[in-house]
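Researcher: First entry.
Model:
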Amino acid sequence: MNLTGNVVMALRGISSNWLRSLLTMLGVLIGVAAVIVLLAVGTGSSEAVAKSISSLGTNTLTVFSGGRTASQTGTKSSNATLSTTDVKLIGDSNNAPDVQSVSPVISTNETATYSGATYSTSVIGSTPSYLPASNYTISAGRSISSADVKSHAHVVDLGSSVASNLFPAGSNPLGKQIQLGSSEFTVIGLLASKGSTGLSNGDAVVIAPYTAVQDQLTGQSQSFSELLVQGKSSATLTLAQSEVESILAAQNNTTVAKLPFSVLNQASLLSTATSSAKTFTALLGWVAAVSLLVGAIGVMNIMLVTVTERTREIGIRKAIGAPKSVVLSQFLIEAVVISMLGGILGILAGLIVVRFKIDGVQPVLATYSIPLAFGVALLVGVFAGLYPAYRAASLRPIDALRYE
């Protein structure tokens, strides 16, 4: 009998016990759908983490002032701070040729108020270079300028969440005065929406000249809470980090190993997060593989039952001359057809499920998961049907005909 005849016979066998066959397919369906969905969840989580980290800045280093003490030569020591002198030295291309820009940062939380509306927001005092380094863009108006910083101007760029909560829909916030704490600031620019990073809401910010923030909100200080350093490229970010650390170590009369500051390298953070996400995705894939294994056991179980039920049929076919290979292929193809049908339905189910968020994560379809899942489903049919088919083909005609 040719392949077409075997497939037709397999379909007849499946339809004769359609409920049992459907339940068997369900095991394969769930396994295939699980592979597609869980790999999509892992890929979506990985991309979300990468997007969150990337949204914090482009090729950036963040130097945090922990208020620790810098050990100096001799017996003296002093509190380590990030100062305007550090900013100038790091921003000098002769000292740090791989640094694109350096932005001092002073941050505080304040309640923004306008015409009775209030909104709790993060206020960031910095310089114009902070916006491009942090991936902020202006959607209307202008950004703070060097002249604003020098003149201690009370001007701000509003994040979209702040603007939407303070001003009525359709109104133009530009030129309006808002209150931050007890001080008034004029809105000169609106920031394009950045979205939530998962760590914080990138739109719930107000950016102002750091000099004005010091004057009105935090008090005068010669130190900054952090420095945001932008490298010239991701390839040279590690070199930029070495240059920054060397400058700060020299300024604090210490060594890089004993540097009293924390330096966060965005590239290293992204690499670590991506590696962890890949491990998580692989783990999800193995969990899905267990579902397919359960489906394979179900197919094998049903095929063993089928062989037992059709023992007399097998004896008749062998008695009239059917070779062992024909009987083997008959039951093997039936197992493969069940698995393939379950696999096709599983792919369709998986493609539907990945369109919806799962526990806050938007799955991203991994294109390789479809042929992978279908291929595994096919192998499930082959391996699950191989032993029952071999058992059927090995029956002696006389024994099969005697079977009750």
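Researcher: Second entry.
Model:
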Amino acid sequence: MDVKKHILTFIPLFCFFFSLTFVSCKNSRTNPVIIWTNNVEFASYVELFNAKHKDTKAVVVYKESPASSLPPAKDELAPDLVVGPWLKNSKTRKNFTPMDYLLGEQGISRSSYYNQVINYGIINEKQYLLPVSFNLPLIIYGTRNENLITTTHLISIDQMKTMAKAFNAQGSDGSFTKMGYAPSWDSDFIYEVTKLKNVSYREKGASFSWNAEEMKNTLESLKAWTTDCNADTSSEQNFQFKYLYMPKYKQVATGRCLFAYTTSDEFFKLTEMQSQGISFRWLEENMKIPVEDSIVTMGLYKKSRNTKKAEEFIGWFAREDTQRELLERTQLLKLDTITFGIAGGFSAIKSVNEKIYPLYYRSLLANLPTESYLTMPNILPPRWMNLKQRVVIPFISDGINTAEKESMGLEERISDWTKQY
């Protein structure tokens, strides 16, 4: 299946949903619920909502970054609901009104959510945000190597290292012909390791703080992985250049490497053909799986002009039967190779993941992490993705390079970023 072709098909489909939604709302006697989001799946969700509600209609307004679009510009149509990532930081959260009263009303039960995930939306002991979806890190491997994988469901960093080292093979000239895994191959992996090792990034003003001691220890342990298993960073990158120039699912399928790092939203978008012969383990440390930073949440804008109707949409969306229909609709429209699950991730509602997801994602059958494994990210600054890509990842990439003699400190990098951005 050509995913690019489906993406190109989905763009006009999104526009069609938007226009259809707008027309239906325009003809409605009531003011529509205005939803700001960068989550294109909501175009389909809103179309279904409008079809099922005679007197309440909704409109999707696409915002590339809903969090940074608040508050609305002068004369701009204000939202009633905002759906997207990065809504919890100090700059953004002041735009929302508490929704504690909805838990119990509108058929929404706090206990239906993963406890840690719904608590993520609490600010100053009030429920300002309702979680929509989240993603988890995982390690994929080819099933041809199933006999080499000594764990079930989960895999830790140390277990990865041990299995990867045992997989390594070298030719007569000393060059690697097989390499289990290398930290320098994937910057997202090493970032995830720092989270697992309690480096604890968190918002501090417009920037962030971190645990410097844990950062130092983590970078040293990753560098030791390279020297203990793969000689040096140069050997790792030469191997990657020579053999691993294809997508990750193909990398592990070739048998040249044992592992590749990815996330649930990327893995479960693979077609049946692409995922054939591929299996996975959830990446964990001390029985904890870190939820990806970009959790999608829903907030009720404090200056909403249509609060009651917005509450109706929230209540409808937060039902198990609604999300079942949304997943059915995704499959019917053949969008499941473009987006995963509900709003691009696991649903924040436990029963949806446990009872409905395995019907569409068979590899999740009896393979879902329990609630106790999930650990949430700290509050992060509104421009975290930019900080992460331009400051954090270059710092940790330099820090694990065995050839790196001197590297710019994290504080200095933050200072440079602040001046530039």
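Model: Note on the second entry: Residues 20 and 182 are 49 Å apart (CA to CA).
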